[in-house]
Specification:
Layout: H1 2-8, H2 15-24, E1 27-34, H3 36-49, H4 52-58, H5 61-80, E2 86-92, H6 96-112
Antiparallel strand pairs: 1-2
Helix pairs in contact: 3-5, 4-5
């Protein structure tokens, strides 16, 4: 597995570690799910859909066998726990700087329009 990762320059993390990394990058509402089992189901189904005659006539039998091997290897890695496929959902709030810039632009517009903003936020 280490040679596979080194060859492809992968740095694989656990779903929990991906979630933690995403949170540390400033994202909120992080939901990180291990979808390896679902990947295995889909990969096996897709392998079964390959029509050797059609594929071989357009590409080659060697390419088909190589493709099937790659997908089977990924399925086996998932089943051994060496590889995971995740689904990650997260939101990122606008930075304080962006919010402040918006307020300053609104104030600038009021000033240029000859309007005065009261301390209660109302424009007079």
């Amino acid at each position: 597995m280490k040679s596979y990762m080194a060859k492809r320059q992968y740095s694989l993390l656990s779903p929990t570690a991906y979630g933690d990394l995403t949170r540390s990058a400033g994202f909120e509402d992080v939901d990180c799910q291990d979808r390896s089992f679902q990947y295995c189901q889909i990969a096996r189904r897709e392998i079964g859909r390959i029509d050797p005659e059609t594929f071989d006539s357009e590409f080659s039998a060697d390419k088909r066998k190589g493709l099937v091997k790659v997908f089977n290897d990924k399925v086996e890695m998932c089943l051994r726990g060496d590889r995971t496929f995740i689904l990650l959902h997260a939101t990122k709030q606008p930075s304080w700087y962006e919010e402040r810039r918006g307020v300053l632009e609104a104030c600038k517009g009021c000033f240029e329009g000859g309007l005065v903003m009261g301390t209660d936020g109302n424009v007079r």
